[in-house]
Fold this sequence. Notes:
The chain is α+β, with helices and mostly antiparallel strands. It has twelve helices and eight strands. Its main location: membrane.
Amino acid sequence: MEEVKDDIIAFNLKAFIQIIWKEKLLLLGIVAIFLGASAYYAFTKKDEFISEGQILPELASKGNKLRGLAGLASLAGVDIASSGDGTDAFRPDLYPDILQSTPFFLDLFKQTVTTKDNKQISFENFYHQVIEQNKEIPQKKITKFPVKENGFLVLNTLSEDRIKDLKKRIQTSIDIKSGIISISVKMPDPVVAASLARFSMIYLTNYITHYRTDKAQKNLEFLKEKVDAARGKFYSTQAKRAQYSDQFQLPTIRLQSADVQRERIESEYRTSSVFYDELVKKYEEANINFQESIPVFQVLTPPAAPTQKSEPKRAIILLIGIVVGGVIALFVIMLRKQNYKKVFEI
C-alpha cells in the first residue's frame, strides 16, 4: 500500500520578520490611518452618562394577603376567603416591555427636564438641541398621514427614528429570582439621564398599579352605585312602614284591606332590607379587594446624576484602532507580491 503523507505548512519566522521590516512604512501607514480614524471618532463623539435606578416590587400574591384578613373580615359579616385566586395575569417578565412601548416614549417627549446647567426644557427640545444637534429636519420627516387617530397611532418618520434611538438609550431588566427591576438611561446630560430614569420608574409603577387595580376599581364603583340605590329604596320602605304603623297604632276598626296593605309593606321592607344588607357586605368585600390589589413598590436605588461618563472610552477605542489597523496591515503585506508564499512553506 502507498503511504499518504499529509501536507505540512511550515511558518518561516525569519522570513516573516524580514518582510515586516521591509514593509514597515506600509505597516505604520495603515496603522496610522486607522489610529487617526479611531481618534477622530473618539474625540468627536459626545460624552454619554448612564443613570440607573432599582425598584423592588411586591411579590406576594393577593390571595395570600386576603386569607390573612379573612378572619377579621368575617367578624363584620364579610366572606373573602374565596375571593380571587391570587394570580396576576401581568407577569413580571413583561415589565420591561412597558418602557419599550410607543405610548411611553410619546409621553416622555412631553416631560420637562432639568439640565446640568439648571435650565428647564421639554425633553423633545432637549433631544433636538443636544442629541440631534439642532440639525434641520426635512419636511418629509415630520409629515404624517392625514387621518384621524381612532384607536391607533399615526406617527411621522421623525418620531419613529427618535423612538428607535431611545429604545437603545432606555433599558429595563428584571431579576426573576429577586424581583428587582433595574432601569438605566443613557443621555449626554447626567442630570437629564437621572431625571428620565426617575420618570421611567414612576411611569412603570403607575402603569402596573393601574393594571392591577382597574378591574377592582370598576367593580367597587359599580357596587357603590347599587348600594346608594338600595339604600334609597330601603329608607323609602322604612319610612312607609313607620308611617303606616303610626296611622293604625290606635284602636280602630280593622279592615281586611288594611291587613293586606300591612303585609305588602312588611314584605317590601324585609326584601329591601335584606337586599341592602347583602349589597353592603359585597361593597365592603370589594373595598378590601381593591385595597389589597394595590401593589407596593420599594425604591432600592434612586437614580443619581453620574459624575463620570460611561462613554466614549477613548483609550479602548484607540487601542481597537491600532489592533484593527495592524491586522489589516499584515493582510495587505502578506498579499503584496505574494509574500505569504515566503512565510508559509508547504
